[in-house]
Amino acid sequence: xxxxxxxxxxxxxxxxxxxxxxxxxxxxxxxxxxxxxxxxxxxxxxxxxxxxxxxxxxxxxxxxxxxxxxxxxxxxxxxxxxxxxxxxxxxxxxxxxxxxxxxxxxxxxxxxxxxxxxxxxxxxxxxxxxxxxxxxxxxxxxxxxxxxxxxxxxxxxxxxxxxxxxxxxxxxxxxxxxxxxxxxxxxxxxxxxxxxxxxxxxxxxxxxxxxxxxxxxxxxxxxxxxxxxxxxxxxxxxxxxxxxxxxxxxxxxxxxxxxxxxxxxxxxxxxxxxxxxxxxxxxxxxxxxxxxxxxxxxxxxxxxxxxxxxxxxxxxxxxxxxxxxxxxxxxxxxx
Length: 335
Known about the structure:
Elements (H helix, E strand, L loop, with lengths): L2 E2 L5 E7 L9 E8 L4 E5 L14 E4 L3 E6 L10 E6 L2 E6 L3 H17 L27 E6 L2 E6 L3 E3 L5 E3 L23 E10 L6 E9 L2 E5 L9 E4 L3 E6 L3 H4 L4 E6 L3 E5 L3 H19 L5 H10 L3 E5 L6 E5 L2 E3 L4
Antiparallel strand pairs: 1-2, 2-3, 2-8, 3-4, 4-5, 6-7, 7-8, 9-10, 11-12, 13-14, 13-19, 14-15, 15-16, 17-18, 18-19, 20-21, 21-22
């Protein structure tokens, strides 16, 4: 579902047909920023990408004339909608019907807000060309009017990133063509309760990496991807003290952050949306309750196991010795 991040931008994952009429949809992370008049997409959440990573694509909101359901236009693409931008139609896939409706609504609302006033379209000779925060290089553009919609095309093949470094699109290194989609992993011996991609913080380097998480009735583990058979780590639910929304999310500057607290470590995990975060918290908490019973923590479980041990030691006050009782039979010290 689209959500509002700390910068008051609407964000979320969608699949987009980047090459027109290819029929191939790739998973991307989208940011709708009405203040910047832009709808941009990245390989992943920029928080999880290396510093200075370039965006994959962008559209000015003023170029988008309409956003609508495209189920009839693309019957084979589930939850599909279309953005009309000049001569190009951008087809996108949402995660479900509610996700589709929400994206269509927020995009249509955004393009209504950002329609420029007639006076604003006139150039101001006294206003010098603006320089970017990091000294962006100015690129010349050609403006064409097609069907009443202004289409601006750069006349230079160079592009400049946020800190003024020239980028050659042809030499961009793509480590992967798209993010792995949320395909289910084959069930193991225990039935899988929930599975999907999240981003977790490393224990040593404190870097953030996308991992495929899988929860069953006894454990929660994470894999490098859903294609891997062996997990990178498995956390037994009996060792989990609690799972909750992270109270340090403001300090870490991470949206949708929750924590899995064990006796040895606290795992910080970032979901793709607030709904997904609450879904994981509910699923893990529910699995813990189902395993232990309501109101039983990890420490109370350990205490219960100690008390359930048939071998009980009793301190004898008269002799200062211990007598050990096993079942109904007792071995008492001689006086």
